[in-house]
């Protein structure tokens, strides 16, 4: 193999970058950081930029040294004799292979070996690949920690990049570095002609601290982001004049070498970075859209007439004019201002206040200090606590004193953890035992725990979780976790039997919500106390305080541990004691200033008991179900606690004017969705301060399952909505309410102003929890399925006569090849997950096999009963309708009786019975061959009478059904029956409120859907999962895109007729340019990237473009038979779907459509949730949102891959997708959310898929808006 000459280093360029600099850019999310870091000394002089101020403190040096020590440990203990290390003397981390040596090692490296610290110098092809100007910037020689040499299934060598990191968690910066190394290596081996090897660009690895093997991670989802940065952002940032490069100051900046420069600039120029908690994107928006740089400029801007409209185009600023005004006033006047929002977590008072602090050192990531301060009236302490406990928590005068534990050396950390947990357990147990001994509720005591920051709260939970692994601490740690509840409890084996709404209040969160303080950037504790006028003096000490961060700096404890300065230990304790007193003073000051904004009292203290269920999976499910209910309740309440103006902007309230007692005109401009179900999920209050207080004091969780909604109130009523009248745009204009709990005093009269809020209701959680506790056997199908789905999927045959009947009836069912394979598997196995991608006829398949099974059993004189359940009534009723249709056409199953539990939500089938919930058992007994369609909750009411009733249970939409709810139908499968889970994990998922930790390997994923929990790990195992692969809906191009990006090569069009479908449209020559470009039938998938628009929730220009397309489609689109659609109703049913992820954009599109033309029926524009399972000739998807910040707030909806997939795959022949450019060019902060990163990567891959330079277009759409239209007549694979 010939060697290619080694590329020489580039001549001097203005900028030089390294993989670590790029990784830091993604962490800092700051253009200025990249510009300053990359500048050469000469360029810094030209720019008048600052020099780097490196942190050479002993602590930082120790952090670096510990990293090198871990690298050495990995090499000597895990990779001994496997790793190639450059020759030399001294420390290993200083040895590096030269470029020539690296190339030789890449040529000759044997599988199973590793290359330690090779040298990479990217060849010119790397610069060309990413369109990087080599005269502008050079990627410096760089040195990945390890390259592993492996071999793939074809016997070809594969290089994988590994980073070695001392930390114990995988971070974004690790992903960036590993991928950038891999991209370089890919070009290097091609440049060097190393053809017998390839680079793994799908997976990278990090060897994390304390791990005995590297942790693999996916590169595919992240790769489009880094490539986009290299191709577009890098040159843009470096070419921009230094003074114009975007920057912002926030807490992460403390780790930046240019922090002091930016902080000084902020202070000297009175820059708007001073505004506390202003986001980077918010600052960018104010600068570009409002020309605001300074606090005085912001003050002037807030007085303009168009302020609200400009702010509304940025998510974090929407509806925030009053809040910003108060923040500016506070900074200018140097006096605090009260905000209009309430903090429901802060009670008016409590009998016992418990203040906590925990501090972590950065080297070992261990808690080295834990302290608490308990405050209560002396008589309460005497009554509740033991004398020994009071002696530890009170001084000789009976005053509260802190208890602070400090590990004076690393070896004492474990002892500290033990002492802390023992003491906290003993303290809370004494309070709990006192309350349990008092029968009178009024004589029991309340307790509220407080902590300063989210960081300390995380340390508290982490400390307790870690203690679960230690036998001597596990029981007490578990009891404490039962009270300090958090999502991490999902990973525990036991769980609490009740919920705790606010176990520990994070004071800084409440402070931000309730106050505007004259404090820069962040409400740090010393400055906040001073601004609140606290009598407690807590001065800043830079040795212990971060500039903007929370907690105590670790330099002091490092000096004690590593440098022998034991004399600092008392000082560290004293600083912790002062912090506890300061937290107490902070709460006291907040209450003094905001007493009128406090509305709640804490409950009487009780340590939750242990859940009685012994099985850990059931216990986890019970905790998850209850915790999700609580989180959803808190979401509703938190929305109601926002300021009145913010609520109106965010669509969280409906402003009403009474026409009479029950009819209310909608007078506000809100996008809040209302329905006329009559369900009492609403709270009607007076539009005044009394009404505000009434809704804030309402105890949603207590009354969550009570129809009447609690006790009466003169300013609050509980109502249902029985009628919604709409205007000509189809928007709600008037509602009629039904009082479930009327106002206790005067009822509304004509002209009265009122507000309508959602109230939290939950009628299902308690029954599901009771079911999981009492009715799920420890040795039954449900638990067996979660623990070992492969075993449950083992062979289960019908009798020979029935199997013969089934074989004979196969042809009558008209199944495709993959459907027939799935049908046979269902006949031969107890359990089968059926993966049904879009358009594969899942509903037809389910109905067909049900009729086939019923027919075979009926012919043999055997009974056969089927349960069909799903996440929605629509899915259940669709299967029943298909059953009735197939029966009529002679597809078998004529003996089957169809029934729907309780009621039909769509027009009722003439030949299907309605079965009352309580009558289900007797109805099934009377029917030998029956199909019952029912929700989980209907069959739950008579579950005990239905045990082992069903020969077949089908859970449709199983990818939307949560695991806990699925236990009910699964429990009804007969011991000789069968279970089918039909779903698609790439379509709509269940809505989950909590952010739960990753599931341990080998454990079921309980916080997702039953389809993912059972089939997730086996989705690509053909022996377990049956994938339906023939697509009846989408043409060849649309199917090819979905196949290539998501569903794999098996996913194909059913036949040539489906494949060749094209939009039956011929536009006139004078049609608009946007219609000609987007609706051309030769291009089935078109993506429109709009630039020059700022929009958060509504995008008027995009809505107008959508309306033009829809209008042209209505005029010229013909059905597949060549006929024009005979009505608007038919057109919006089968001709076009218009999809948008947000209500505000939906409303804007509806308005634009009505301005474009008159319609005889309302245009159908809705979210994707309303369209799953449906199809149309064309689908137009309008994201509207051009604000990545808003997209991040609603990442599951805006950046959700699943929702975009569902929207696109409704189309038979044409999909037009509007994606505003800012959504695609999101800042690196998007990548901190894995699901958002995955969705954004999918969007970018879509553009790559359809982009064809021969057909792409650019249109100028006034005023100043550019539309780049990506389209291709052939898929990327075909090209």
What this model shows, in words?
By secondary structure, the chain is of the alpha/beta class. It folds into 6 domains: 15-239, no CATH class; 251-335, DNA polymerase, domain 1 (Orthogonal Bundle), CATH 1.10.150; 352-594, no CATH class; 640-762, no CATH class; 776-984 and 991-1028, Rossmann fold (3-Layer(aba) Sandwich), CATH 3.40.50.300; 1036-1278, P-loop containing nucleotide triphosphate hydrolases (Rossmann fold, 3-Layer(aba) Sandwich). The strands form 8 sheets. Strands 26-25-27-24-28-29-23-30 form an 8-stranded parallel beta sheet, with helices on both faces. Helix 7 (172-191) links the parallel strand 6 and strand 7. Helix 1 (19-28) packs antiparallel against helix 7 (172-191) and helix 31 (842-859) crosses helix 32. The longest helix has 25 residues, at 413-437. The chain is globular. The two termini are 32 Å apart. The model has no long low-confidence stretch (mean pLDDT 91).
Question: Which features would summarize this protein structure in a list?
Answer:
globular; alpha/beta; 39 strands; DNA polymerase, domain 1; 1279 residues; 47 helices; eight-stranded parallel beta sheet
Brief account:
GO terms for molecular function: 5'-3' DNA helicase activity; ATP binding; hydrolase activity. Helices cover 39% and strands 16% of the residues.
What's the structural blueprint in terms of helices and strands?
Layout: E1 15-17, H1 19-28, H2 31-38, H3 41-47, H4 58-78, E2 83-84, H5 99-108, E3 114-116, H6 124-129, E4 137-139, E5 146-151, E6 157-164, H7 172-191, E7 197-199, E8 203-207, E9 215-218, H8 223-239, H9 259-269, H10 280-290, H11 295-301, H12 307-311, H13 321-333, E10 337-338, E11 352-361, E12 366-376, H14 378-384, H15 387-393, E13 403-406, H16 413-437, E14 447-451, H17 454-467, H18 471-483, E15 504-506, H19 507-514, E16 515-516, H20 525-531, H21 555-562, H22 569-593, H23 616-640, H24 644-649, E17 654-658, E18 663-666, E19 682-686, H25 689-697, E20 716-726, E21 732-741, E22 753-758, H26 765-774, H27 781-787, H28 789-792, H29 800-808, H30 817-828, E23 831-835, H31 842-859, E24 864-869, H32 873-888, E25 897-901, E26 912-915, H33 920-926, E27 929-933, H34 936-940, E28 950-955, H35 963-970, E29 973-983, H36 1010-1015, E30 1026-1027, E31 1030-1031, H37 1036-1047, E32 1052-1053, H38 1056-1059, H39 1073-1079, E33 1085-1091, H40 1100-1116, H41 1128-1135, E34 1136-1139, H42 1143-1156, E35 1165-1166, E36 1176-1182, H43 1188-1193, H44 1195-1198, ...
Helix pairs in contact: 1-2, 1-7, 11-13, 16-18, 17-18, 20-22, 23-26, 26-35, 29-31, 31-32, 39-40, 40-42
